[in-house]
Amino acid sequence: MKRVERSFPLPHFTINKNFMIQTHSEESEKKLGVREHLLDFFDEESVVKIRKWVTPEVQKVTLEAHLKPYGEKNAPVPCDLHVKWDNDLHAEVLILTKDEQMEKVTKTMDQLRSRLNDTNFQLLEEKEKLEEAIQHANHLSAPFISLTSNTALVPLFGDITEEKMYTVESQLLHSSQQGDIDQILFDFTAVGTLEREGAQVLKNIMTSLNYMGSHISIVGVRPEQVKNIQAMQFPPQIQYINTLQQAIKKYCSE
Description:
By secondary structure, this protein is of the alpha/beta class. It has helices spanning 26-32, 44-53, 98-140, 162-176, 196-211, 223-232, 244-252, and strands at 2-4, 12-16, 21-25, 60-67, 77-85, 90-97, 145-146, 151-160, 183-194, 215-219, 239-241. It folds into 2 domains: 2-98, Beta-Lactamase (2-Layer Sandwich); 140-252, 2-Layer Sandwich (Transcription Regulator spoIIAA). The chain is 43% helix and 28% strand. Strands 1-3-2-6-5-4 form a 6-stranded mixed sheet. Strands 7-8-9-10-11 form a 5-stranded mixed sheet, with helices on both faces.
């Protein structure tokens, strides 16, 4: 029996039909040691199975078997035995232990987990950027514009949603207290859908502004929005003006 320099990273043998080892690889010598007979590596139950199936009549076969404990192993080691007969006299045998397979699976899983973590981090970054963009857009959807020393305009843009109204609430309450603003015009001209939850928050903002001493006017309400506003029972002190032009003429004329 001789050792051959094969490039297999696994235990590899060539055997004759009597299971005598003709050649073995360096890897088999490192992991399993040196034996004259292939069956010497396996436990009794596996030997019965190998004798039955590893024959020239079965040209190619893969068996599950158990190696006798070796190295630091304290128990039989499960493995796959791959056998291919080159002819009726000689066969090639490759042994792949299950722990090596699990190691490969674990390594693959770790790589996938790492890639998934990277992907999740990228998605999180994109999510945060998107949230920042939405937050910025929400802030711009209700700017507080001073028209005169005591009159301000809040043009509303887009759909009136709960999230959007909560975003602009603090800035509107804060801005109303700067200077001597006592008249605030909420312009609905560019408003889209008036969602119930968003309208409720807007109603609360207007109520708070009213308590803080500001007179509120709603400008440019479209006919289809009137019913929703009435259903929400906005504060009775609120005035309604048809157009922004009329509102500016009324409150901003010298």
